[in-house]
Design goal:
Length: 126
């Protein structure tokens, strides 16, 4: 199971992917998508530039979905990936830093032992 938080300029989304391992004679071991859960909140992270606590509330709301959908036995081994798109790049450096620190603090309060955080400020939103 993998969790992806996509914090774009027009919305904040969580994708929860469950994969099934298969063995293929030609390709060896591969993973096939078994299930995907998608939830979205309409406000993008950059819209909370002046109210960081609201961004933390929104992230927590989406992480609660992951808490409900991912078996407690898998929490410590479930990667949690953050992808931030170009909307944050439009903010001044101070506001961008405050927002990202707020999100990082929210992750730190959560239960996922194996966290992966990536930041992609290029490209467009999905």
């Amino acid at each position: 199971v993998d969790c992806l938080l996509n914090v774009g300029s027009i919305g904040t989304r969580i994708h929860i992917y469950e994969f099934r391992a298969t063995t293929d004679n030609e390709n060896g071991d591969t993973f096939v998508l078994k299930d995907e859960i998608f939830r979205e909140r309409k406000s993008g992270l950059s819209s909370f530039a002046d109210h960081v606590y609201k961004s933390e509330e929104q992230i927590n709301d989406l992480l609660k979905i992951a808490d409900q959908e991912v078996s407690r036995f898998k929490h410590r081994n479930t990667p949690l990936v953050l992808r931030a798109t170009a909307g944050l790049r439009l903010l001044n450096e101070t506001k961008e830093k405050l927002l990202l620190e707020g999100v990082s603090n929210t992750f730190g309060e959560q239960f996922y032992g194996s966290r992966i955080a990536t930041l992609d400020l290029g490209g467009g939103s999905t």
